[in-house]
């Protein structure tokens, strides 16, 4: 496989998506895209390795036929309630020539993070630096080239359950491929749908999938918090199935065709005809009844997220509002419901900044994760280098950005 070819694989609860892209000098060109139905994952976890590997084969076969090339290595998305995160501060001393900080010092800093004590059944998925300090001068995003005797970092460390990762690895290898990198799904989605100014000002990403809902909070262009919830689109479908006594496929179709997240979003209160099963006769229900069933679960989801925001202490940092993405965000009235419960402005997030090729095929919120997987994420498990992405390090004892940050914090406390 060519070095400039990147493959993303999104293992969803309802479908497996694969994208093959080429990194050109100016952008990413989507060469192939494949989707295969899947029922072999449960809330982000592999429940059947044989079925998962077959879905991977099916999705990649379509993508490879479109691209006209063979591929081997994949960037694979990871989700599930087993995901946890923590903030960790560490430092190393600088002993190089003229006390100049180099990439090797950053590598030592990252290696030191890997020595922290974590549960025996967990592994580090990402080490993402929030900011660096040199000799106690903070607010530095890229310390390379600066001089000092002490390099310090505040890191966002994402942990995953080892069995969950192993089952993904075995599914991919059984399909005949190799995992190049594991990437947390909400982080991948954020790369795909968030704008830089949103991440700077403060934004909450909510990715509503089939089995899980993933959130990520960004502020000052750094990730501050991640969380995965086991409440998502499939739970809504199951509520419809149980309440109306219909099969899962029909419940899913009802949700897509007639579903609303709130009563206020209903444009026309139609009568919905439901075909009977077995001895059960055909019935008809109003759209308002279906909406009541859906609304209960969606309100629960956004209430869980709101509680997480309050516990994290970061809600007052979300100045740019909320970006909803994932297939579940397509439910009509979803943004309005989220806005009313979270008390923050909301918009739908679609994949951004793709070039030529088949990019239109993945220009929907349901493909936000797989779009991010081909863009790559700094601080992931297989990255050889680690550091800020800015061309300039922030120097000097006074920072305009730091001044306005203190002013904003002052008003937040009022």
Key phrases:
single chain; 414 residues; alpha+beta; Dna Ligase, domain 1; Nucleotidyltransferase, domain 5; 5-stranded mixed beta sheet; 18 strands; 33% helix; globular
Write a short abstract of this structure:
The chain is of the alpha+beta class.
Please give a structural write-up.
This protein has 414 residues and is α+β, with helices and mostly antiparallel strands. Among the domains are: 84-161 and 386-413, Dna Ligase, domain 1, CATH 3.30.1490; 196-351, Nucleotidyltransferase, domain 5 (2-Layer Sandwich). The protein has helices at 49-67, 103-113, 162-174, 185-193, 196-201, 233-244, 248-258, 287-312, 334-342, 368-373, 400-413; strands at 5-11, 15-23, 28-37, 41-42, 45-46, 73-78, 84-93, 122-134, 137-140, 150-161, 178-184, 203-208, 213-219, 222-229, 271-274, 283-286, 322-325, 346-348. The strands form five sheets. Strands 3-2-1-6-11 form a five-stranded mixed beta sheet. A five-stranded mixed beta sheet has the order 14-13-12-17-18, with helices on both faces. A four-stranded antiparallel beta sheet has the order 7-10-8-9. A hairpin with an 8-residue loop joins strand 15 (271-274) and strand 16 (283-286). The chain is globular, with a radius of gyration of 23 Å. Residues 379-407 have low confidence and may be disordered.
């Amino acid at each position: 496989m060519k070095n400039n070819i990147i493959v993303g694989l999104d293992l969803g609860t309802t479908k497996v998506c694969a994208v093959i892209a080429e990194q050109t000098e100016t952008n990413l060109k989507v060469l192939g895209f494949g989707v295969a139905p899947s029922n072999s994952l449960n809330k982000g976890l592999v429940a059947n390795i044989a079925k998962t590997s077959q879905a991977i084969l099916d999705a990649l076969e379509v993508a490879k036929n479109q691209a006209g090339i063979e591929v081997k290595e994949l960037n694979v998305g990871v989700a599930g309630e087993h995901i946890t995160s923590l903030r960790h501060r560490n430092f190393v001393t600088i002993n190089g020539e003229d006390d100049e900080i180099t990439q090797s010092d950053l590598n030592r800093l990252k290696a030191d993070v890997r020595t922290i004590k974590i549960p025996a059944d967990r592994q580090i998925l990402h080490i993402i630096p929030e900011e660096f300090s040199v000799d106690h001068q903070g607010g530095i995003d890229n310390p390379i080239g600066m001089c000092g005797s002490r390099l310090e970092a505040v890191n966002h460390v994402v942990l995953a359950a080892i069995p969950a990762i192993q089952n993904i690895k075995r599914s991919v290898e059984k399909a005949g491929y190799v995992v190049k990198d594991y990437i947390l799904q909400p982080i991948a989605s954020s790369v795909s749908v968030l704008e830089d100014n949103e991440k700077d000002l403060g934004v909450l990403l909510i990715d509503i999938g089939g089995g899980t809902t993933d959130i990520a909070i960004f502020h000052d262009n750094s990730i501050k918090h991640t969380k995965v919830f086991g409440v998502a689109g499939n739970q809504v479908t199951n509520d419809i199935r149980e309440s109306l006594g219909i099969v899962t496929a029909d419940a899913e179709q009802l949700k897509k065709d007639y579903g609303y997240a709130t009563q206020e979003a209903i444009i026309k209160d139609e009568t919905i005809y439901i075909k009977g099963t077995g001895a059960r006769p055909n019935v008809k229900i109003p759209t308002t009844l279906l909406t009541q069933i859906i609304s209960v679960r969606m309100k629960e989801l956004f209430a869980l997220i709101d509680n997480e925001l309050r516990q994290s202490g970061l809600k007052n940092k979300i100045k740019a509002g909320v970006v909803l993405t994932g297939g579940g965000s397509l439910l009509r009235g979803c943004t309005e419901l989220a806005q009313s419960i979270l008390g923050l402005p909301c918009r739908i997030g679609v994949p951004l900044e793709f070039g030529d090729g088949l990019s239109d095929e993945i220009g929907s919120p349901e493909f936000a994760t797989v779009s991010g997987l081909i863009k790559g994420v700094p601080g992931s498990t297989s990255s050889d280098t680690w550091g800020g992405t800015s061309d300039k390090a922030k120097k000097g004892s006074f920072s305009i950005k730091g001044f306005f940050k203190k002013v904003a914090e002052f008003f937040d406390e009022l």
